[in-house]
Amino acid sequence: MFKTILFPIDMSPEAQQAAHLAIDLVKQHQSQLVLLSVVETGDSPEHPEQASQEAVAALLNQAHSLFEQQGVQSKTIEREGQPAFVICDVADEIDADLIVMGCRGVGLIEEVAQESVTNRVINLSPCPVLIVP
To answer: Domain range spanning residue 102?
Structure first.
């Protein structure tokens, strides 16, 4: 059902929690897993810890190792830009069947949801999005 699963990761605990579900889905559906991390660009990135190419590369290597330890092969992609747009662009490029991502805990309340990466991905995604709270 899900041939290709895109798992955008950042340094949040929510992304780490979502990793366990991504592992289960990949194993259950024998999917290809693509890990994506975005180096945020601009004058004031939403998540300053994601503004360093070195930090993002280290995060991807760590995540790749975690998945490998669980018996899941993955491909890694690092891009620059605004996270929500990059996530949706990559999902389209790789023909993803599902995006699995963590939610930073602000929920989907109307005032906050309009600005969250999660909400932007939900609204722009070319495929279904599974949000792990």
So the answer is: 4-132
62: number of Cβ within 10 Å: 12
* Confidence check: pLDDT of 112 > 60: no
CA distances from 132 to 1, 4, 44, 105, 118 (A): 19, 18, 26, 10, 10
- Token pair of 42, please? 């601009």
Contacts of 128 (CB under 8 A, 6+ apart): 97, 98, 99
Say whether pLDDT at 52 is over 50: yes
Cβ-based neighbours of 53, under 8 Å, separated by 6 or more:
39, 78, 80
Sheet holding 129-132, edge to edge: 74-81, 32-40, 4-8, 98-102, 129-132
127 pLDDT above the threshold of 80: yes
Would you state the structure tokens that stand for residue 60, as one six-digit string?
């991807």
For residue 119, the domain's CATH number is: 3.40.50.620
